[in-house]
Amino acid sequence: MTPQVLVLISGNGSNLQALIDASRANPPTLDASIIHVISNKRSAYGLKRAADAGIPSTYHNLLAYKKKNPENPQEARQAYDADLAKLILAQTPDLVICAGWMHILSSAALDPLEEANVDIINLHPALPGQFDGANAIERAYEAFQRGEITKTGIMIHYVITAVDKGTPIIVREIEMIKGESLEDLENRMHAVEHIEIVNGARMALGKREKNMQTSEQ
Ligand SMILES: Nc1nc2c(c(=O)[nH]1)N[C@@H](CN(C=O)c1ccc(C(=O)N[C@@H](CCC(=O)O)C(=O)O)cc1)CN2
Ligand SMILES: NCC(=O)N[C@@H]1O[C@H](COP(=O)([O-])[O-])[C@@H](O)[C@H]1O
């Protein structure tokens, strides 16, 4: 059966589009079916990309949880994450890909996925341990201007509760260019992302298949 992939997004969805295009190429460069997209932002353009591709999507709204429990935002976030895991597992994916998903996932989201043996990977626009967290490209750009670094990169990694600390699957270094604008650096990095997110998905699915065959022996 063709592996089923669920993608988490928050914005433009250009990496989601790369996954859709790879899975629908003739012949496919990614042997998988993108079965569902979940966004934490109603305005995410990636939701339109999913609709245009005929892929079902869900807008999972954190604000509703915070309004229901204004006294305890931490509890609200836990409930949000627990329901996110239920939304994901209801689609029975083989792999979940964070493609610009801009929420830190707590154990309330990750533990049910682990228990269900569903792998989750993330695309992060920095080298391991370099600029963990949000706004990594801008932070790398500023560090380069200060003469602190000469290169940045992108990685595809497994997701654990420690943000951007999961085992890397792919790491690609990207040289920085003196005088280059932030926008030009971002464009160069996105071009690399669109290639490596497909390669990372393929590698994660391949590893999963191998592990399942080994456990069946
Ligand atoms: N538990 C994990 N959750 C997530 C990981 C991870 O490795 N472990 N990767 C991230 C993606 N990401 C970087 O790659 C990242 C995204 C967002 C943030 C962040 O600080 N988000 C803020 C809210 C930002 C917003 O809503 O605009 C937050 O969650 O409070 C850090 C890292 C996906 N999640
Ligand atoms: N920390 C996670 C993070 O910063 N992810 C970044 O969000 C962008 C999503 O673009 P897209 O919505 O066009 O795919 C990508 O640049 C990705 O590396």
UniProtKB/TrEMBL annotation:
Entry keywords, A to Z: Purine biosynthesis, Transferase
EC number: 2.1.2.2
Similarity-based family: Belongs to the GART family.
GO MF annotation terms: phosphoribosylglycinamide formyltransferase activity
GO cellular component: cytoplasm
Name this polypeptide is given: Phosphoribosylglycinamide formyltransferase
Catalytic activity: N(1)-(5-phospho-beta-D-ribosyl)glycinamide + (6R)-10-formyltetrahydrofolate = N(2)-formyl-N(1)-(5-phospho-beta-D-ribosyl)glycinamide + (6S)-5,6,7,8-tetrahydrofolate + H(+)
HAMAP family xrefs: PurN (MF_01930)
